[in-house]
Amino acid sequence: MPIIDVAVPVPLRQTFSYSSEQLVAVGARVKVPFGRRQLVGVVVASRAEPEHSSENDTPVKLKAIAEVLDNSPLFNTTLIALAQWLSGYYHHPIGEVWATLMPSKLRKGALLSDAQPGWMLSEEGHDPKAIAGLRGKKQQQCLELLNQGPLASDEVKAQFSAAVIKALEDKGLIEATLITHPPAGDWQHFTLQQTPPTASTEQGVAIAAINQQPGQFVPYLLDGVTGSGKTEVYLQVIEPVLRQGRQVLILVPEIGLTPQTVGRFERRFGIAVGVLHSQMTDTARLQVWQQARRGDIGIIIGTRSAIFTPLKSPGMIIVDEEHDESFKQQDGLRYHARDLAVKRAHNEQVPLILGSATPSLESLNNALNKRYTHLTLQHRAGGASHTQLKVLDSRDQPLHAGIAQGLISIMRSHLQQGNQVLVFLNRRGFAPAVLCHHCGQSVDCASCERPFTYHKSQGRLQCHHCGASRRMPTQCGSCHSADLQTSGIGTEQLEQGLGKLFPDIAQVRIDSDAVKGKDKLINRLDEINARKYQLLVGTQILSKGHHFPHVTLVVVLDCDGALFSADFRAAEKLAQLITQLAGRAGRANKPGEMWLQTDNPGHPLLQDLINNGFSHFARQALQERKLAQLPPLSSQAVFRGEANDASQVINFLQQVKQCYGVSADVAHGSFIGPLPCLIEKRQGRFRFMLIMQCQQRAALHSWLKHHLKDVESLPLAAKVRWSLDIDPVDF
Ligand code: ADP
Ligand code: ZN
Ligand code: ZN
Fold first, then answer.
1. What is the DSSP string of 179-225?
2. The whole model's pTM is what?
3. How many angstroms separate the CA atoms of 409 and 465, rounded?
4. Mean pLDDT of all residues in 399-420
5. 618: CA distance to ligand 2 center in Å?
6. Tens digits of residue pLDDT in 463-483
7. Secondary structure tally for the chain: helices H, strands E
8. Which residue of 56, 129, 519, 706 is surrounded by the most CB atoms within 10 Å?
9. 268-306 pLDDT, tens digit each
10. Which parts pass through the membrane (predicted)?
11. Which atom of ligand 1 is least distant from the CA of 234?
């Protein structure tokens, strides 16, 4: 009887063998008994003969698989190879890797079929009198919709209530049917819907370089300032790829995936674009996944997990804003979609474009080392000018709503000219702390031991680490004084203060409190570009991807915290943020300026950015990382642990260190820690980390692998909540 090895979604670093009536294709899903449950796993090997243990030759008694879910492999060989690579590189159980790779419906065992249930008009329903005879408006609309052809149940359900559908069915006007998908779409035979702008010289060089080497793995770093026309380069290089009938996969940060972005691709080629993001229904997601797998769509745009989309005939992978932190998954399988894109493009033998105005030091390092082809766009497209960066020394200046007097006059002059002004403050809420005016004690979240943020509109305190919320106390918890005062400024207070300073100016606040949900954000952004508001206040949502052609002044308040952070990446992140923010301003031939208000005007990071720009800063930062032997000039992995008892976590990490300490064979490997995480306590649990570092990536991985089993069998490993993060990006 054949033996099947199955990757089962359990946290164990192994596959499990089952017996089967027949051979099952590698890459197909099966349902298998596991303990008292039945789980959906993926077949990783299938062989005709059972293995005999060499010593006593009795065959091992295996359980039988319960059900074969796919008659043919669901995943092709490149995705199977990718899963194996993921499991090895991230030291993650293969069954859980597969569970991460699959859309949730498939993970739950849904049968994949090319036909799906749908609704169509019955014979009576086709009678024009049927619609006229209906009372309910919704019923009429539903009938009109189905008059255009049968439709999948899910799509009908998305627009009409179950009651409407049932009523029409009861009246015999509609009936259930099965919808089969149309054969592969004809997307490769498009005609351009717009004449592309003539490429600038820089764009032309980039486009020619990319077009010269089709159909093979060549990684490019498209390093172009904001507004330099990177998206236009993507549009022009994917055209020949699509014409060859090859698909293009484009990854974007979560916040960058707007109808505007998708619309740009749709408008150029006049073909449907498949969209994948975290807020879609499972059904919709599976549908796009299937379309991509069948080759029915040519362009797929998605966020992080879209890197797992199966492609029938892959032609190119693009990662836009490749520096963005949202590409790193922060729990479970902690993969980096950008790194995975490199691996996948390599496996698929297709070109890879990483685009950014502020490339990650990882990618820049690869470009400078000639592992990636470095393409640069230094000029803004269409003649728009660069934003001027300036520092405003706020020491000893009177502040109004947290803004220095000098800056207020600059703001006023921009507003008087009818332009928009963007004020950035990366702190939501009214005030980041409430202090006792008598004894100085702050009102803290008990489980995180950090001050609560005051949210005035709700009249409540909120912990920004764990989300806990409580009423504003009437007196101090330690001295009982009733004199409690807020300290510091958040966007809510800034908005209020600006309202007083500029009472006649229409203002909008964009942060996660004021703008809940993607649709609302998109509406606000449209209103901003329609010039409904002149003053824009907000957090980093404002720094990403959106263009504000009428903004001529960007004001950044309070970036001093990041200048002195313990995170070695803080400078890189701040420089990216400032550069990205600067890129929001001064399009459409309106020159822009940006002011950084700081108490540290002479700080070398700020000076370097202002005088020499991001690319100079980034090269300097790489030199510093080299001297300090920090990533990307070395490789890191971090063990994190958390528990209610701090000493338990520290002990566990000490023991982890001992597990590894005994191997003296690792050249240049070292440990940092255990030390507290940057957020030391969250929801009552103490958090510590142990950083492992090696100059060579390969050495780090073999070292890690060598003793991971020992770590897992530590008694404390069952008591402490712990994880392993490869190439961590935050602490
Ligand atoms: P990026 O992706 O680098 O931010 P975009 O591709 O969005 O830049 O281009 C910025 C603006 O310049 C867009 O409005 C775009 O239509 C325009 N643009 C891009 N390339 C050209 C070009 N070669 N000629 C004229 N306008 C261009
Ligand atoms: Zn007090
Ligand atoms: Zn808390």
1. EEPPSS--TTS---SSPPPPPPHHHHHHHHHHHHSTTS--EEEEEE-
2. 0.89
3. 36
4. 93
5. 46
6. 988 889 999 999 999 999 999
7. 21, 34
8. 706
9. 999 989 999 988 888 889 989 999 999 999 999 999 999
10. none
11. 6
Q: Encode pLDDT of 526-579 as tens digits.
A: 999 999 999 999 998 888 767 888 999 999 998 887 788 878 898 899 999 999
- Closest approach atom of ligand 1 to CA 199: 23
Residue 312's H or E segment, with its range, is: none
C-beta pairs of 174-178 under 8 Å, 24+ apart in sequence: 174/119, 174/120, 174/121, 174/122, 174/125, 174/142, 174/143, 174/146, 175/119, 175/120, 175/121, 175/122, 176/117, 176/118, 176/119, 177/117, 177/118, 177/119, 177/120, 177/150, 178/115, 178/116, 178/117, 178/118
- Six-digit token pair at 247? 């698909």
Q: 661: which 2 tokens?
A: 């300490």
CA distance 704 to 531: 55
- Give the chain's end-to-end CA distance (angstroms, integer): 50
Pairing of strands 444-445, 450-451: antiparallel
DSSP state, 430? S
DSSP for 631-643 reads TTSSEEEEEEEEE
β-pair type (551-556, 174-180): unpaired
Position with higher pLDDT, 238 vs 399: 238
- Six token digits for residue 332: 């479970």
659 a known binding residue? no
Tell whether 559 is in a known binding site: no
Amino acid at 641: G
Among the bound ligands, the one closest to the CA of 450:
3
Rounded to the nearest angstrom, the distance between the alpha carbon of 236 and the centre of ligand 1 is 12
